[in-house]
Amino acid sequence: MDGKARIDSEKITINLGFVDLGHIDLLVGDGFYANRSDFIRTAIRSHLERHGEVARKAIVRKQLDLGISLYGKADLEAVRASGDMLDIRVLGLATIASDVSPELARATIRSLSVLGALHASAPVKAALADRMT
């Protein structure tokens, strides 16, 4: 690696009933899955695949950028210089770099909608709170 942390997942916490958890442990114990996380990831991917066409249509309809989007200081300064503002719509991970000030973010980001995860400093998130949907 080049010294930068690779970001390819987000940790979540879920609550499961004891019976569901027991079923998962049974399948893990019988070797169908490596561990609970493996079972849950597999189940989620299977469900997402089942609804894949609906999701693809929604991505197009809502004009979402799919994947990882990074907005750095130079990018936003170029937007400000052009006199334009961004409407950011991401399905995945949107990152506003640590070198972006809250003032620059407010001057260049008109709206922000992220389905997935938003990585930005607390001051930048606070500055954009009224623009997040």
From TrEMBL:
Determine the domain of life of the protein's source. Bacteria
Query: Where would one find coiled-coil regions in this protein?
Result: none
What the entry lists under SUPFAM superfamilies is as follows: Ribbon-helix-helix
Entry's InterPro entries?
A: Arc_rbn_hlx_hlx (IPR013321), RHH_8 (IPR041088), Ribbon_hlx_hlx (IPR010985)
- UniProt-listed Pfam families: RHH_8
**PANTHER family in the record:** BLL4998 PROTEIN
- Name this protein carries in UniProt: CopG family transcriptional regulator
What is the protein's species of origin?
Sphingomonas naphthae
